[in-house]
Amino acid sequence: MALQLSRTQRLVTRFVGPEMAAAIEAHSRAWLLCCPHCGDERSIWEIGGIRYKAVGESRNLLRCPSCGRSGWHKLHKAANFPVTNAPALPLVRFILFTVLGILIVSAVIVGIILKIIGVL
């Protein structure tokens, strides 16, 4: 049974090409969260997240689905971490257009507010 993608995964993979989407999924599947209590490991992709071209290891406070206890799950790369050279341009373009869209919407909202209060 195929897992459904989270909103974030659907949004990002919709706006990048199939090659980039596959690279993002492969990288995200290779980043593992490890439960400090039972040792259960699951990938960032499985819990609905994305981690692409990232570095460093962190700890995340989560509830483990196996043992049910909350704890600081350690994030680390799997031994079979993929080495992909997918172009980063589609992802950069997606991020830039998203930020630009947010800025435009914010400017329109501020303009409407200023017009309503009589400044413009």
Could you characterize the architecture of this molecule?
By secondary structure, this protein is α+β, with helices and mostly antiparallel strands. It folds into 2 domains: 1-86, no CATH class; 88-120. 42% of the residues lie in helices and 17% in strands. It is built from 3 helices and 4 strands. A 4-stranded antiparallel sheet has the order 2-1-4-3. It starts with 6 loop residues before the first helix and ends with a helix. The mean pLDDT is 86.
Give the structure's gist in a few sentences.
By secondary structure, the chain is α+β, with helices and mostly antiparallel strands.
- What is the terminal separation in angstroms? 56 Å
Helix content: 40-55%
Overall shape: it is extended
Mean pLDDT: 86
Lateral arrangement of strands in the main beta sheet: 2-1-4-3
List keywords for this structure.
extended; 4 strands; alpha+beta; 120 residues; 2 domains
Question: What are the SSEs and their pairings?
Answer:
Layout: H1 7-15, H2 18-30, E1 31-34, E2 41-43, E3 59-63, E4 70-77, H3 89-116
